[in-house]
Description:
- This protein has 14 helices and 19 strands.
- With 566 residues, the chain is an alpha+beta fold.
- Strands 1, 2, 3, 4, 5 and 6 form a 6-stranded antiparallel β-sheet that branches. A 6-stranded mixed β-sheet has the order 13-14-12-17-18-19, with helices on both faces. The protein has a 5-stranded antiparallel β-sheet with strand order 8-7-11-10-9.
- It is flat and about 115 Å long.
- Residues 422-554 form the GGDEF domain.
Amino acid sequence: MGLKFSNLTNSIIIKSLLLLIVSMLVIVMIGTYVFTQRQMKTTLKLSYDTNETQLQQLANTVNNEMEQFASRLTLLAKTSEIQSMDKLIAAGYLKSFNISSLFISGESISLFDRSYNLVCNNSMLGSTKITYPIEFNRISPHRPTISPWFRDTDGTPKRAFGVVVSDRAMGDGRLVSNFSIRRLWKYFSEYKVGQNGILIACNGQGEILYHPDMRTWLDGIHKITELGLGDMNIKQDSDNSIRFVKLDNGKSYLINRTFNPTYDLGLIALQPKTEIDAMVSSVHHVSQIILFSSIIAILLVSLWQILIVCKPLNNLIDHISQITEGKLDIEEFKARSSQDEIGRLAKVFNQMHATIKRQIQELNAHRDMLEKEVKERTYELEQANKKLDLISRTDELTQLPNRRDMHRTIEKEVDRANRFKKAFSIIFIDIDHFKDVNDTYGHAAGDAVLKSVASTIRSLLRKYDVLARYGGEEFLTLLPETELKDAAHVAERFRKQIENQTIFFGGQEIKVTITLGVAQFDSGLGAERCIQLADKALYEGKEHGRNRVILWTDDQAVESTDKPLA
């Protein structure tokens, strides 16, 4: 039986629905307006943020290029050919293909002696003197010194990089090279600002170093003020707000800028306002379509609900309420027609009702199984965590405890020694000339030597002694309840055993020796100081011939004269 008009007018559901329709229309209209305004602002901010991110990426690329140039110059200054300060050797080295390939056309590199007189450069026509606008006496030995931007005979903007060349015989010299802006042009030319934007590079004085129209703006010296940017000071301009600027060509642009004071280089990205306006216009049109479509959809759906859905929906809500209260044994929901939407909804609802009943039973059956699986997974996780902890405390190559684990072991031994008044000693071990082994036989052989030394020393220890790989070719041995004189015997046994053994690798016989520093723990100094004293004793042994045992006693290093224990 259909609903009468009087029933419709008296129904609180209908009244609520009508109120909801009006409220939704108002909300949609206000929401669409707010959405449109926010999207317009978001579109502008998105364009700005996108340009800002890309500009920062370009700035990082440019800065990395200059840093790599400075690093290469620093490395060249440390080569033996340059440090020799010999004109023929240094000139031949600078003009070699490996070095000349590091520089592009228009860049030069020159070597000067301590009196700032030219020694040689990379010119292929002799050692033509090249003038660099840099104060030689201000070049620091700590980091490269960089001159302001300048232009030489070819008119290309450049900067001079200078580093100190240390030579004990000839005195400190200077290695100077010029960095050409041409290195950066390839990055600038590939950079895109929107569809038709402009990228400009300048220094702190506003002098244009790059512009897409190079014929106009790189022929001579031009300032960014000539473009119409007014009195912009890119070094001090901290205004990060989103804004547009109008250039002398009559067009407005969205501006992004960044400046690196270290390399005196600023980048300005200009995106045409017309591109921003086009995107904003698209957002406005889409918002209007959404608004009108939403209004029509709300009206149609509301009319459909009023005429067809109200009564069956109330009945369905009643069934849902009973199921929500836990009454799963209620009768199925009956619809007058099984062909319309309400009828299909009734069918799906009844299926859902049956499914809920079945799944509750299945969930009860699975609950115990899940609890069992959780316990099993918890156990597996605990085992995995134990394995990870062991890995974090073990050196992968030698399977010895690593430095971190050794420090924890020493801390425990310190507590035990202080509690029971027991002495313990530390032996610092270093493989002599280990770098020569790597250089001569290869790193694989070096690994074999490390494992062999570790295995040999470990075999000579008591079960409660601890051997750890401390780093590189260094090992640290902890000898609990052992005084200095007994530790000296143990160290001498280590040294003798390693000296007498031969390591075979890849058909090669490798002989190595070790130097050992021994120190006894002093509670007044602490464990860290004890390690440092053992290391200091080791250093004394390395300085005085290697392959020996040095004891630290009475604030001095003394070579051990003890013989190994039988």
